[in-house]
Amino acid sequence: MADVRLPPGITGVHVLPADHHDGPWDSIIVPPGTKEQLLGTAVLVLRHGRALQSLSGPPHGLIVLAGPPGTGKSTLCQGLAQAAAVAVARRGATTFVEVDPHAFPSELLGESQRAVRRLFTETLPELAARRPHTIVLVDEVEALAVRRSTASFETNPVDVHRATDAVLAGLDALRATCPHLLLLATTNFTAAVDEAVLSRADLVLELDLPDEEVLARIIGSSLAELAALWPPLRHLAEDAALHAKLAGRCVGFDGRRARKVILASVAQRPELAADPAQLTAEDLFAAVEAAAGTVTGRR
Q1: Which SS3 state, helix, strand or coil, does residue 213 take?
Q2: Rounded to whole angstroms, how far apart are CA atoms 61 and 184?
Q3: pLDDT tens per residue, the chain (299 residues)?
Q4: Strands 203-206 and 181-187
Q5: Sorted alphabetically, which InterPro entries does this protein's record hold (predicted)?
Q6: In terms of residue numbers, what domain contains 256?
Q7: Does the residue 82 lie in any domain?
Q8: Is residue 1 included in any domain, yes or no?
Q9: Does 201 share its domain with 246?
């Protein structure tokens, strides 16, 4: 669905499931059980949110993904939205809303409380009324819900506190009026998010930098994608021992960097870039060593 003019703070509104949203859920590699836990929480809220309101401790429909940049938080949320929409599709379509706290127009600066209140009490409920299910993604949620206990008094703390108060009130209002709405929030710094917001989350998932096992799977996946384009590379894509050795030298890389270093390996020389089918294990190790030197400051 293409909205000609989106409300303040809203950067995208889509109808799911949609074919062009396929991909992220399968391509992103995370520790075993992570996707199952996320999808289970999402489906529970989307399918049974209204019935669960009768519990003494009902869900708030909030999932928070935290972790360093490059760990796939936003991609995982986008994939989760599509996977959850597919899981509940027999009950109707899903509206997927993307919110960027930094996209509010400049004239609202200094009026954070009013902007946030409008988002939670007007904009999101109006969008949620369109379909049986709604999923909202808020990247960098700490921009809306700053931890008040550590807010600097040099950066308009009154407005910061009021904006966070508005988020808390908005979360409670959404749960009461839109039990079919799931809110996905990401943050690079859990410590920057207000404690009361985190306490309302049904699931707070910390995504760490990938370990060697996950890195090996990412490397294998990236090589398999290249082999799909250039079949002579199939032997590299199927060499698990090679993947493990490369992963050992990629410790400290995030998932994004691990994938990019595989792509960078075919761009090291013009002749290799012209014919990536000539890629060798030596080229891969050279690219990894160069990237590792950049990461650690050795180069």
Answers
A1: helix
A2: 8
A3: 444 588 888 999 999 999 877 778 988 899 899 999 999 999 999 999 999 999 988 899 999 999 999 899 999 999 999 999 999 999 999 999 999 988 765 544 456 678 888 899 999 999 999 999 999 999 999 888 888 777 655 555 556 677 788 899 999 999 999 999 999 999 999 998 999 999 999 999 999 999 999 999 999 999 999 999 999 999 999 999 999 999 999 999 999 999 999 999 999 999 999 999 999 999 999 999 999 986 544 43
A4: unpaired
A5: AAA+_ATPase (IPR003593), ATPase_AAA_core (IPR003959), ATPase_AAA_CS (IPR003960), P-loop_NTPase (IPR027417), Pch2-like (IPR044539)
A6: 212-296
A7: yes
A8: no
A9: no
How far the first Cα of the chain sits from its last, in Å, is 47
Is residue 276 within 8 A of residue 229, CB to CB? The reply is yes
Residue 233 domain flag: yes
CA distances to 13, 72, 86, 187, 252 from 69, rounded to whole Å, are: 24, 8, 28, 9, 12
**Residue 46, CA distances (Å) to 58, 105, 250, 258 in order:** 13, 31, 38, 34
Q: Answer yes or no: do 151 and 233 share one domain.
A: no
Q: Which CATH number do you get for residue 31?
A: 3.40.50.300
Q: CA–CA distance from 257 to each of 206, 235, 247, 250, 284 (Å)?
A: 19, 23, 12, 9, 14
DSSP 210: P
Of 206, 240, 270, the position where a domain reaches its end is: 206
